[in-house]
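User: Quick sanity check before I run a bigger batch. Here is a single chain. Can you write out its predicted 3D structure?
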Amino acid sequence: MVNFTLNGLEVSVEKGTTLLEAADFYGIEIPTLCHDKGLSPYGACRLCLVEIGTPGRSRLVSSCTYQAREGLNVRTHSERVIKARKLLIEMYVALCPSSKVIQCLASKYHVTKVRFSPKHEDCILCGLCVRMCDEQMQAKAISFVNRGGRRLVSTPFAKKSEDCRLCGACIYICPACQTRCQGPQEENILCNACLNLEPPCLEKFEDVMCYMDPCVACELNTDKKPNK
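Assistant: Done. Predicted structure follows.
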């Protein structure tokens, strides 16, 4: 067993357990766009970032690919982590504003503005469809081609694949395929129809005080006496 600290709590997990799996086991939700329990970890979306190390000497790592280590200090909802996640979600909204999954994340994590120009892409390169086709459907009908800004998911030589069984698993798991509630003619880049409450505890502390989902507004003004 591996013993480490998770949000101030001393925990133990089996050797080889990732930080994402450990957080999930202990009931702490970490957002992700490229992870699925039935597929191999990929670490593409970076939304599952957590902070490891002591304050002042810490760094951010992707929890889906980083395994728990003896004596490690992990913070899943620190101020630094929350800021990084919100920036990433903002970028994903600009990249693919038509995605219901991404819009729901924006509302959940209180992303209320987008400072990037919208791209209206139909793929976020999360790799879920490629891994699903390979690892679960045993087809390998699609894969990544090209590099950098020209990287995309395609069939070999961009021709109809004889290995594709038209199972639809790639569409089922794709976070960009489910269209947002307003449909394709949305007026604003952000929906925010299901906007959640931003954790008020981050205004006073470096970490959130609870991990309820959805977030609830905690009463922090303890020095205020109730009216009689």
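The chain is about 20% helix and 10% strand.

User: Great, the batch can go ahead then.
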